[in-house]
Amino acid sequence: MTGGARSYRCIALGALAVLGLGLGLGLTLATSRSLQPLPDSFEHLFDHAARHTFLDRHGQPLNITYQNRWNLNDRVYLHQVPEFLQNAFIVSEDKRFFAHRGVDWIARAHALVQNLLAGDIVRGASTLSEQVVRMLHPRPRTPWSRWLEGFEAAQLERRFSKLDIFEFYLNQVPYGANRRGIAQAAAHYFDRDISTLSEREMLALAVLVRAPRWLDPQRRAAHLDSAIADLAARTGTAAIERQPLQPASGQFGHNLEHFLQFASTRVDAPRGQPVDTTVDIELQQKVQRILDTRLQNLAPRHVQNGAALVVDHHRNQVIAWAVGHAGRDDMPYNQLNAVVVRRQPGSALKPLLYAAALARGWTAATMLEDMPLEEGVGPGMHTYHNYSRIHYGPVSLREALGNSLNIPAVRTVQYLGAQHFLDFLHRFGFTSLAGHPNVYGDGLALGNGEVTLFELVQAYAVLARMGDFKPLTLLEHRHRQTRGRRVLSEDVASLIADILSDPGAREKEFGRDSILNFPYQTAVKTGTSSDYRDAWAIGYNDRYTVGVWIGNLDYSAMHKVTGATGPAQVLRSVVNELNRNRDVRPLYFSEKLVKKSVCVATGAPAQEDCRTREEWFVPGTSAQPAATTAVTLRLRKPSPGLLLAMDPRIPDSHEYFEFAVTEADDIRRVDWFVNDTLVATTAGPRYAWPLRRGQFTARAEVITGAGAEPVKTAAVSYRVH
């Protein structure tokens, strides 16, 4: 070799050495900077993660640990873990655990060969110590992360004993459904304590950590059986193949994460201190089971979600808070807290609507017209219908509420005014209804404003407590610090309860043998929003108030599920459960109410020539022939901003639009004005106006009774295209 060549080779080797040294230094520096500090003690992790421990009303712990990064409450000492289960984990996850110093280089070499031959990553070879590092320092699953985990695993083993690391692993290893550790996994998958597990169930826990979804006992039983058989062969316990594996159903539990999320916002106790809640865990389990079963039965009708709230209104305490399919990771949108999601209540607000009217002097015998009704909504007209599409003519307030008739409800809110009814609802705690009254209009009576199940049950609890409002409490002893305020008289609240618990009052629409007729006196109301997007059932008896919502949290429509056909069955089952083993009393009834005879057809005081019935009255009120006398006269059609279009298929000379004023007693004459020009005079509240294109202003002057001064309506602008 010449001197020049030898010199060139030395330079090349030197350059490579410098490059290698530089890369080594760079790798060392990058590794040093990327390594994260390890805790001085595993217990310190739990101190930093400590949250309030929530207890039910009897001192039973609730499952808040499923929401934490760490398993805080279901930890076991290593000596409490069956030896067979310990050995199963060692064989399955890290058979040289007690021999290596954090990294099993032999296992890594075998894994490298297997992965190269397979052309994919089929084996990871992480030791238990490296898996603990991954729990402590979550990183993306990359080669760089594996590099760092090896160094941190070695540091971990220098800081902690093998037994401490193994105990931490067994208590914190993640499973499905947010469970951590073998104690939570045993309860979730097999409904057992670890001390009662069979050997086959122990092997199942050992292999489930590899892929909880892929090996799920409910949905991947065959995959799990194969993995168990493989591990059984490796542990020399193949005989356990004959042992049956009986996984828990996983359908019904008492996952209270939604309740705890809400309750956590109301806790003012020091961090980590136990918090006594008002929930009864035994009742919670039953309510959850009832709700989930009903949702499963309704699934073919495109029903996915639901919620139920149970309140002891004597103590003003929430005792059950159920969200449909809570804790299941295969159900849509069940992470949302449906108890406090805003939805349209449909007819569920009608008891409060009529309570407001009774408070203004109406009576249960006040007559309301249930006739076809068309009103302006935005730039168009809306025709109101009852659910059955049947109109019953004059009906009493009792029948209007009992049968949940829509048109009498609209006439009632027109009498009260949307502003007055909205203020009334605010006094009952409906903070979700924050819009201007014009946003809701007459539709407020039919539930076009969105409210929560929590607000609705809270309001019905006020009715059950005879008009005494208190915010619902979720924490023990908090109810003693809350003073109530009266928002409704006992007399009116008694009348509402009497109507809602009267089978005869709802016979027209629901029939005599309705599912709403409970064994014991119970005030019940249902609601269904437009296009079957929401179905509600709320009821109360002498002690409890229960509310149920069913629907889809993606706002898709159900297949003709109403309050009576969907949630009413849940309501009935829950109330029956509440009534078990107790003396049920009748609903409170005010002694001040006065019974009077009224004419069925008119609601007027009973006379010899009419068919009569008995009705209850608030002292100081009396039977009225009709409610229309109190309605403010206004132009009903056209409505402000109405847009009309001429029909090209009809000759212009034959096209008409009906003008109408609100119904009132004894209308003698109506003068109709368009653009301040008198165009017609009629003897009734309607006029067929000949259509023509343009921008117009309409008003009317109404004369009621002989010699009365004309009542002038406000002018209304509209356009015809």
From TrEMBL:
Residues 306-541 form the Penicillin-binding protein transpeptidase domain. The keyword Hydrolase applies. Pfam families: Transgly (PF00912), Transpeptidase (PF00905). One of its GO terms (biological process) is proteolysis. The keyword Transmembrane helix does not apply. Residues 69-225 form the Glycosyl transferase family domain. Its EC number is 2.4.99.28. Keywords: Carboxypeptidase, Glycosyltransferase, Hydrolase, Multifunctional enzyme, Protease, Transferase. GO terms for molecular function: carboxypeptidase activity; penicillin binding; peptidoglycan glycosyltransferase activity. It catalyses: [GlcNAc-(1->4)-Mur2Ac(oyl-L-Ala-gamma-D-Glu-L-Lys-D-Ala-D-Ala)](n)-di-trans,octa-cis-undecaprenyl diphosphate + beta-D-GlcNAc-(1->4)-Mur2Ac(oyl-L-Ala-gamma-D-Glu-L-Lys-D-Ala-D-Ala)-di-trans,octa-cis-undecaprenyl diphosphate = [GlcNAc-(1->4)-Mur2Ac(oyl-L-Ala-gamma-D-Glu-L-Lys-D-Ala-D-Ala)](n+1)-di-trans,octa-cis-undecaprenyl diphosphate + di-trans,octa-cis-undecaprenyl diphosphate + H(+). One of its GO terms (cellular component) is outer membrane-bounded periplasmic space. InterPro entries: Beta-lactam/transpept-like, Glyco_trans_51, Glycosyltr_51/Transpeptidase, Lysozyme-like_dom_sf, PBP_transglycosylase, PCN-bd_Tpept. Pathway: Cell wall biogenesis; peptidoglycan biosynthesis. In the C-terminal section; belongs to the transpeptidase family. This is peptidoglycan glycosyltransferase. The lineage of its organism: Bacteria, Pseudomonadati, Pseudomonadota, Gammaproteobacteria, Cellvibrionales.
